[in-house]
Amino acid sequence: MTMPASAASSSAPACAPELLLRRAAVLGAGTMGSRIAAHLANAGVPVLLLDRATPEGLRSHLAEAALTALKKAKPAAFFTPEQATLIETGNFEDDLAKLKDCDWVIEAVTEDLGIKQTLLASIAPHLHGDALVTTNTSGLPVHSIAAAMPEEFRRRWFGTHFFNPPRYMRLVEVIATPEADAARVAALAEWVDRRLGKQVVMARDTPNFIANRIGVFAMLHAVRLMQAQQLTIEEVDALTGAAIGWPRTGTFRLADLVGIDVLAHVARNFAASRAEEDVKLPDFVNTMLGRGWLGDKAGQGFYKRDKAATDPKNNRLVLDYHTLEYQPARRPKFPSVEMAKSAPTAAELLRAVLEGDPAKDRAAGFLWPLLTGIWNYAANCLPEIADSPASIDQAMRAGFNWELGPFEMWDAVGVARVCERMQAAGQAVSAQAEALLSSGETAWYRDGGEEVFDPVAKRETAVARPAGYASAASLRRAHGVVRQNAGCSLIDMGEGIGLLALHSPKNAIGGDIVSLVTQTLAPEGEWVRQFRGFVIAGDRSDFAVGANLLQLLLAMQEGDWDEVDLAIRAFQGMTSAIKLCPRPVVAAPYGMCLGGGAEICLHAAARQPHAELYLGLVEMGVGLIPGGGGSKEMALRAFDAARLAASVSPAEAPGRFALTGEYQDAVRTRFETVGLTRVSTSAEEARALGFLSAADRVTMNRERLLLEARAVAVELAEAGYSAPVERVIPAPGDAALANLKLGIHLMRRAEYISDHDALVATKLARILCGGEVTPGVAVSERYLLEMEREAFLSLCGERKTQERIAYTLQTGKPLRN
Fold it and tell me: Which member of 15, 520, 565, 664 has the greatest number of CB atoms within 10 A?
């Protein structure tokens, strides 16, 4: 099954030899194979994508069609469209000779043992002697696929199970067979970690490995409880989503996304090898399979779209599993779940939703047997499938996007308390949990998650993590906190670098972050003397979603314009402190990095972004312009891009340069990027949008981001870093401004934008052009900042801006008024 999973506590050895991987091949251009090929291309690896030859027309039609589909895929399979050029297509009859140049060959054909074995026999004569060959099987015994191959082949054969879609799902389960060469397995695991950005879980060669073993049991267990308690599909999805720290898709929406046939295949793996386990598909699911209702790829599954609906936002139908008829989907509400939503952490949320009496609270009545059943099952499976509870937890976090793995969830509620309630209710308790409690321990984890109880050895063991992994929390435990407030902490990262860790509620940038960052980076401050560089990052799911709009709106509504003005000046002061700090400041953005978060990055000495980066200046969406130095920085970047494109020397007359086509084009491009609130969908796209420089490196693995950012800060410090001086550039002036205003006017006449959009866009255009001045007039950063502050403040006084902010805070969506 191709659902999400995670990293294991049994990770690849840190001393694994470096793998030289110049070219790869993927055998099978189906959904998984083609997307694995796309992600290899994202890592800069040329890929040969092969599938069956078609008897007529284009011989490699299947692979060509897969590549065409990849280019159109949503969400995007490639970081940028250009990476598709790294994929060469072919077929199994004409192109096997090309495998001689491939260092890694991935088998990803249909889940049929005979087909896989025949394919391996056909490719073996074409491989070079050191080529690694792995299978992406989601549950077939890895050793059995290559059982008939020569011993030399079996030494470089093992499993690499990706989760779908491979670009976005973090888990790769690596399954070593008894005959596989340990050094080769370790080398590839290390490469997959660093170059593909995956969390590697070392899994045993057991049916469905780790994540699917637990995940599919959880899904089928939820179905059984739904039928027993007469709940609806929508109710189960509401209870098995964000309510317990699982993805918002819930159980059935996830099954539609993955494919109900894939779910069935994994369940049948269970049935074939684990007859004693209750993992049979219910009758109604078998009927769906017979009718071809396989989920999203078939247009219908547990849900489908109502093509006759007049409201495109309310057109989802849901299956009544009793009648197999579709009906309008509802959004069920459970009072206890609604009350628990305010819990600040996943652990507290979980405790709150399970607090209710299962006999009286429908939510608790479903979730208690669901979760205790999953926890018990995970503990019972542990000795067979994984090295430790941490392996299972990491797999479920990374593979199924659970916030907490099953053992972490159990700890959050209390192992002893749960076991007592289970025994009182007549439920069996896993022998592994009994071993934990009889040893005198009260939780699976201790020492901040650094150690985990091994119920087989009956002692605590260290949770193994690859060298180079770090989080703000682990650095805090190792080195302590230098100073902190509610939104930010300064942590010693080691090697003379300080980490400004952002941890504000909802990832918003408020006065607490602004104050601590500004004070820390002050040129004469004690912390600048203490550290030789800084990194700005955090542990939350997103880097920063922007400034605290609620605080800003309250000040607007109260008419406290002095407070608004002070807040703008303070934010500009923070970004200026980042830019002008005498020590290098490296921003390490990841996830959502919007508005004020993007402005932090624009002012840093360097950026070390995670590959999956959604970065943009989105203030126009709430009726504002970037006011924390973002508009000013885009003006500077327009000048730099134009200079580079025109190859103009510093001695070129400013007035003449300001009128060049390159400068006009660069200004217009930045105007459109900000005005259309363009947000990157990858770090490479952020570079194309002008938010990252050519020198900024990209981290593929989120777990490595902090230490790779620290390495950049050390490198800059040791190179003799000095702060930049305030810049002065020739303004594009009134000539460029007239062109932008004309474009705004035409868009308004065509009713693409509203009057308020036009007002905001005009203010942005003025800043980017330096105002109504003669082209070439010198303007300073301070001048542009002042223009930016005045524009931002004036827009705060607009009623329609206030309406937009209030609507966005309430709904999370933009308002076009």
Answer: 520
639 lies in a domain?
yes
> Given strand 87-91, what is the order of strands in its sheet?
87-91, 47-51, 24-27, 104-107, 132-135, 157-162, 171-175, 199-203
Residue 782 lies in a domain: yes
Name the token pair of 41. 């291309």
316-320 sheet: strands from edge to edge: 303-305, 316-320, 325-328
pLDDT (tens digit, 9 = 90+) per residue, 219-248?
A: 999 999 999 999 999 999 999 999 999 999
Distance CA 617, CA 592 (A): 11
509: which strand partners? 547
What pLDDT, on the 0 to 100 scale, is given for residue 5? 33
**Per-residue pLDDT tens over the stretch 671-720:** 999 999 999 999 999 999 999 999 999 999 999 999 999 999 999 999 99
- Residues 765, 737: contact at Cβ < 8 Å? yes
Containing 315, the helix (H) or strand (E) segment is: none
Number of independent structural domains in the chain? 3
Average pLDDT, the chain: 93
What's the mean pLDDT in 540-551? 94
Q: Looking at the structure, tell me whether residues 168 and 245 fall in a common domain.
A: no
CATH of the domain at 277: 1.10.1040.50
How many Å apart are CA 33 and CA 66, to the nearest integer? 9
- Beta-ladder partners of 488: 502
Query: How far apart, in whole angstroms, are the C-alpha atoms of residue 709 and residue 706?
Result: 5
**Is the domain of 771 the same as that of 738?**
yes
